[in-house]
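Reviewers of the previous submission asked for a worked example of the structure-prediction workflow described in the proposal, so we include one complete record here. The input consisted solely of the amino acid sequence. No template or homolog information was supplied to the procedure at any stage.
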Amino acid sequence: MRWIREHKGLTAFLSTFLAICIILSVSYLSAGSNSAVGNLIQRGTAIVAKPLASAKNGVTDSARGIFRFKSVIDENETLREENDRLQQELIQSVLQQRELQELRELSNVLNHDSVLGIKNVMAANIIELDGSNWFNIFTIDKGAESGIEKGDIVVDGTALIGRIIEVDTGSSKVTAIIDESSKVSFEVLRDLSIMGIVQGDGTGNLSGFTFNGDAGVVEGDELLTSGIGIYEAGIIIGTVTAVSYNDDTQLKTIVVEPSVKFNSLKKVAVIL
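From that input alone, the workflow returned the following structure tokens.
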């Protein structure tokens, strides 16, 4: 009782609130949901229930979204793995095709015995370059144990690469015709009477001149080794890409694109 006297305001409020709740409850139970009080209670309940239902639906939708997102992630990961696998298969296929092409080109040498006078051929892999973007000087993985000797001719298919300049056990060094120190005597396939000399120009091509200033060499002419000097006759050198006349020497000068792709060599053949 003492507490009630000390808290008269709060006691009056609680009593009034409790009375209202009792009245509303009795009215609802006696009059049903169609009464004014019942309708009021229903509206109040609906107001409270609606956000709760929305929250529930939101949670459900979020859960569904999370599962869908995880499913997409899993599917993307599967597709990525499949794409990686296909790329690796494609790379392996390309490498195998390239390997077969290189071996096929090297095997062509064996079909030109009458032209090159080949007695024996040794296939080899390039294992080292000597400081050049172009294959001016490089090392192969075959040496004296394979019968290779200094001066042996090195070819790619039927096209001229260069010659052996050093021989060791298990390796040999090759100087290519595109090196500026190399000189090759040539003749024109279209007209074997047209002869001259070419050498490396430092850019991966060859440049040179004809012995006769009146020679009818033209762009597109294919050059072969003439047999004069260290190289046997009949080996393909390259194709003439430019022709001009030098007034000082009174000779025709030429630029030649080698038949060998010197920036992508991997395998060679040594004529023993």
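The domain at 112-272 is CATH 2.40.10.340 (Thrombin, subunit H). We consider this example representative of the routine output the project will generate in years two and three.
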